[in-house]
Structure to design on (823 residues):
């Protein structure tokens, strides 16, 4: 009896841990049965493309959340990086534009962390408001910079081969953006789980006070998570506008919520400390598949918002249950 | 079940409860008579709190029966048990700080009380009844700890409680406040209300209780009327072995000056200067809020400091943050284990290793096997009781959690070990182990700054004692030759510095 109970319990906790995978499998199965188009080559390419930008942003967000914070500024960062990078291709050449774009992401992230540290806003709730404000600031700069207009690849006469290959090139079987994703995932995974800095970030997220009193440089961890968050948002921005070949100053709208959704659904706790970039990849997969499936099943995009919201709430509820 | 009043208000039979990896309660049976004070003693982790949480409905039991006031209780919630007449007053009081006393007592029942006027009138009646003069319109955040306790008791009475459980009620009370509490307990008893009194402090158990139960490792070991217990027997039953004395004796290895602190000034501290010698245990005595904790936090770089100079072995060191302090040779056990010391959801291993990360890092990469060795070695040498290195530290008892923090610092062998309330909330057996460790550290030439609210602890462990009052050092004493009351009056700011 006792043993049976404990087996059941273990099974339940395993199911909880891999709920996302189960849900993905379930979703794929149902959709494939109802709508055979789901498994068509063009749809799978479509899924991969949607996956690219979101997974980049979500990987960065994972670090911020593991570190015990949150970053709503990614939408603004994406807007700003996209319009600035695309506008610099013509005057400066594509490589400098790319590097400046990435650097801009780092600057945005660093700015967030400096604001948080200098204002002493060391709770997740305070960071939520602060980065929300910063998102507005970055978006506003993007709008001012671009005069609100959308920029297109076809207006650029200079070479833009790097961006074109990020957007639509392939390396063997994989798209270039997917290879970039794999490389960054590997680096971030090693950083998070194998290095002392990664451990410091986890401890900071687990208990800032205790971490600081044990000699962990909490401020450094906070700067690191936001810099990673900003950098990955910049990568996401570049992948995004390279794919759609245009950059509008509102291109990043909604990415912050989708990224948080993906991280939490993946199983990284919003309370900080515990989680993994690998889990986030599963979370992103679920989010992307879900919207693809709902598209195919003809569910309106308004309804999709409702579904997304419901899933986020369910994931947070589950997360809280796990803690108890 | 017959509802004729039985002799017992509460009868617990064969109740078991397991948590992952821990059997917290193993077929526990306990009967509480009406109108008496029933003491429950036991080490941390003995299962007292778990049992109480099952009674109140915070946890659900795995098996067994509970009969309260003639009714079998299956599933319950904290609110239901309150309504049934079973109230618990937790160590960390559960009041809403931003609301008034009256509002807290009748929280969520204002309508039953016919609005706020009725609420305050009824609250005043209840408070008068227990002899408390707290104004019902005062905000709870403005109350002292003992006044808050009164409010909790009044709240319990407002539910016409038949049984009130008090979980470590005395842990943050002053002596005068204890007298008040004793009075109230007697009054409640006179009104026929049963009380379960949980405490580590044997003095209180002997003073208040009629019947005493001892719990250990999830079992009730013994239940007897108080007069049949002796103090030693109680201790022995609690820890399952005999200890001859409460303190291991002072270390006698005081050497040269190691630490020289000159004029710490912060918002709360004024010109605090002192020295610490090798092999010395220096006790800081003072009231809560006098500045004891502020001194060590300033020293450790945890708080902002206006000015101070710190010399170690004659060389000036500049400490701006805890990391600087650790590099300079400090270790620090903070006063609040769960909030400042541990990362509760993390494993025992990572909690032990967190101050020595550089030790098992090569080129920025963590060497997992080295880390595991470090943890395993500390677990062994401090005999930390844990199912494995990977167990969440949250699942350990208070004493074992504290030992994890001690181990964390021993791993980097600090020259100066700051211990702020190192034995708070841990049981007699673990306390003795911590004392022994302190003695060993000192005998090996390490120096310790000890802060404790338990005066006997400071007086019995320290080589030298400083008294702190309102942010100033008011005296320096040899605890072996100075009577305790003299030290206490210096800590209360009554007499000046001993020449």
């Amino acid at each position: 009896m006792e043993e049976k109970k404990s087996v059941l319990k273990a099974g339940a906790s395993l199911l909880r841990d891999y709920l996302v995978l189960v849900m993905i499998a379930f979703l794929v199965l149902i959709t494939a049965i109802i709508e055979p188009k789901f498994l068509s080559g063009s749809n799978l390419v479509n899924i991969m493309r949607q996956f690219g930008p979101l997974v980049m942003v979500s990987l960065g967000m994972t670090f911020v959340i593991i570190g015990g914070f949150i970053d709503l500024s990614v939408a603004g960062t994406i807007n700003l990086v996209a319009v600035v990078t695309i506008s610099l291709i013509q005057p400066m050449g594509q490589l400098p534009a790319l590097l400046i774009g990435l650097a801009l992401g780092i600057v945005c992230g660093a700015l967030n962390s400096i604001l948080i540290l200098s204002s002493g806003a060391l709770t997740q709730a305070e960071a939520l408001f602060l980065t929300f404000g910063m998102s507005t600031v970055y978006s506003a700069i993007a709008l001012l910079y671009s005069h609100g207009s959308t920029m297109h690849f076809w207006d650029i006469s200079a070479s833009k081969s790097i961006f074109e290959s990020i957007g639509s090139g392939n390396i063997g079987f994989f798209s270039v953006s997917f290879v970039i994703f794999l490389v960054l995932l590997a680096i971030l995974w090693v950083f998070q789980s194998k290095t002392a800095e990664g451990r410091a970030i986890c401890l900071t997220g687990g208990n800032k006070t205790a971490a600081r009193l044990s000699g962990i440089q909490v401020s450094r961890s906070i700067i690191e998570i936001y810099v990673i968050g900003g950098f990955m948002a910049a990568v996401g921005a570049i992948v995004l506008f390279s794919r759609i070949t245009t950059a509008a100053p509102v291109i990043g709208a909604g990415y912050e919520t989708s990224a948080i959704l993906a991280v939490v659904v993946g199983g990284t706790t919003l309370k900080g400390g515990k989680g993994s970039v690998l889990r986030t990849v599963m979370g992103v997969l679920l989010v992307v598949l879900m919207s693809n499936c709902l598209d195919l099943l003809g569910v309106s995009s308004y309804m999709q918002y409702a579904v997304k919201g419901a899933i986020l709430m369910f994931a947070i509820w589950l997360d809280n249950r796990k803690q108890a | 079940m017959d509802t004729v009043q039985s002799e017992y208000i509460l009868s617990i039979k064969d109740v078991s409860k397991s948590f992952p990896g821990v059997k917290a309660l193993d077929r526990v049976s306990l009967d509480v008579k009406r109108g008496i004070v029933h003491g429950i003693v036991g080490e941390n982790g003995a299962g007292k709190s778990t049992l109480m949480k099952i009674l109140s409905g915070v946890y659900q039991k795995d098996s067994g029966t509970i009969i309260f006031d003639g009714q079998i209780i299956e599933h319950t919630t904290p609110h239901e048990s309150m309504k049934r007449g079973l109230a618990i007053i937790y160590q960390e009081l559960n009041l809403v700080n931003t609301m008034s006393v009256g509002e807290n007592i009748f929280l969520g029942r204002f309508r039953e009380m016919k609005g706020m006027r009725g609420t305050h009138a009824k609250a005043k009646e209840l408070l008068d009844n227990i002899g408390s003069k707290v104004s019902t319109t005062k905000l709870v955040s403005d109350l002292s700890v003992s006044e808050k306790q009164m409010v909790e008791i009044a709240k319990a009475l407002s539910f016409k409680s038949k049984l009130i459980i008090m979980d470590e009620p005395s842990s943050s009370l002053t002596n005068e406040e204890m007298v008040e509490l004793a009075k109230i307990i007697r009054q409640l008893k006179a009104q026929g209300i049963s009380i379960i009194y949980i405490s580590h402090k044997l003095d209180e158990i002997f003073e208040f209780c009629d019947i005493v139960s001892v719990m250990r490792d999830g079992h009730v070991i013994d239940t007897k009327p108080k007069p049949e217990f002796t103090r030693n027997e109680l201790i022995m039953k609690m820890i399952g072995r005999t200890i001859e004395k409460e303190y291991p004796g002072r270390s006698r290895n005081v050497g040269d000056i190691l630490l020289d602190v000159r004029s710490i000034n912060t918002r709360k501290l004024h010109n605090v200067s002192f020295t610490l010698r090798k092999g010395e245990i220096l006790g800081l005595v003072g009231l809560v809020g006098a500045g004891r904790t502020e001194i060590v936090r300033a020293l450790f770089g945890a708080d902002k400091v206006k000015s101070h100079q710190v010399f170690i072995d004659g060389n000036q060191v500049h400490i701006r943050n805890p990391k600087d302090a650790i590099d300079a040779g400090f270790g620090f056990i903070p006063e609040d284990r769960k909030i400042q010391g541990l990362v509760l959801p993390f494993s025992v291993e990572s909690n032990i290793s967190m101050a020595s990360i550089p030790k098992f890092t090569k080129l920025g990469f963590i060497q997992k096997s080295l880390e595991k060795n470090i943890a395993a070695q500390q677990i062994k040498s401090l005999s930390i009781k844990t199912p494995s290195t990977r167990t969440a530290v949250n699942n350990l008892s208070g004493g074992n959690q504290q030992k994890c923090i001690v181990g964390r610092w021993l791993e980097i062998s600090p020259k100066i070990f700051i211990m702020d309330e190192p034995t708070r909330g841990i049981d007699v057996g673990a306390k003795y182990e911590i004392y022994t460790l302190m003695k060993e550290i000192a005998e090996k030439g390490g120096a310790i700054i000890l802060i404790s609210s338990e005066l006997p602890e400071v007086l019995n462990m320290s080589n030298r004692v400083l008294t702190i009052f309102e942010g100033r050092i008011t005296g320096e004493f040899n605890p072996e030759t100075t009577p305790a009351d003299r030290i206490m009056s210096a800590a209360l700011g009554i007499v000046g510095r001993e020449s």
